[in-house]
Amino acid sequence: MTQDEMKQAVAKAAIDYIEAGTIVGVGTGSTANFFIDELAKIKGKIEGTVASSIASADRLKGHGIPVFDLNSVSEIAVYVDGADESNKHLHLIKGGGGALTREKIVAAASSKFVCIADESKLVDRLGKFPLPVEVIPMAQSLVAREIIKKIGGQPKLREGFTTDNGNIILDIHGLDIIDPVKTEEILNDITGVVTNGLFAMKPATVLLLGCQDGVKTID
Ligand code: 5RP
Residues 175-211: pLDDT tens digits? Predict the structure, then answer.
């Protein structure tokens, strides 16, 4: 199986977690795009969606799937999204596509987080993938200094990129994250940080991992 075939397989498997008449939280990225395309096939069964990015909202609308504003919705049954890295505890690094803040918001509003990824994303320890941090632009230098002081690594500006919220991203290279919950807390406490890409305080509920021999469920 190619990487895309594995992504497609997990996107298909995630459909089993969707209950009729509910609102579905939808993530961002190439794996989430496969999921959106699968969701289109059962669109009559769901009430609608809440999207974690403008790009995903556009793709959903393109399929004729209703997209609601989070403020008009009281309950999201399931959030489905990809990840850049996951450990076996389902702590994740997300934000490779820069949508981490809205992803964390929609995940927080959802009862269940079904993470879908190909096998390359499962790691023993998080941190090889540069950890994205969304930052208020005027705080860029301050936040970079604080990151180095508090957790180490090399924060680098994601050049030419602005988030859907009008902010910048610092990608922290060279980390070896021994305690993802603690690291998430430390980064959250830095003034000027909007969100960091660690999803450890509230990890995924289940990971559907696309492997050569099929979809593995880790929970
Ligand atoms: C976007 C994300 C994505 O879920 C993550 O980057 C994985 O993307 P892909 O499915 O394309 O590998 O967090 O902000």
Answer: 999 999 999 999 999 999 999 999 999 999 999 999 9
Q: Looking at residue 86, what is its pLDDT? A: 98
Residue in the structure block whose two tokens are 């690094």: 93
Active site residues: 103
Q: How far apart are alpha carbons 32 and 115 in whole angstroms?
A: 9
Distance 131 CA to ligand 1 centre (A): 12
192 CA to middle of ligand 1, Å? 24
Q: Whose CA is nearest to atom 10 of ligand 1?
A: 31
Strand partners, 131: 172
> Tokens 């500006």 identify what position?
157
Question: What is the C-alpha to C-alpha distance for residues 185 and 200, in angstroms, rounded to an integer?
Answer: 9
Task: Name all residues whose Cβ lies below 6 A of ligand 1.
Answer: 27-31, 81-84, 94-100, 103
Question: Which amino acid residue places its CA nearest to atom 4 of ligand 1?
Answer: 82
Of residues 125, 114, 95, the one with CA closest to residue 22 = 114
| Alpha helix segments (H runs only) across the chain | 3-14, 30-40, 54-62, 100-108, 140-150, 180-188
- pLDDT tens string 68-118: 999 999 999 999 999 999 999 999 999 999 999 999 999 999 999 999 999
Query: How many Cβ atoms from other residues are within 10 Å of residue 64's Cβ?
Result: 9
Residue nearest to atom 5 of ligand 1 (CA): 83
Distance from Cα 24 to the centre of ligand 1, integer Å: 18
pLDDT for res 1: 87
Instruction: State pTM to two decimals.
Output: 0.95
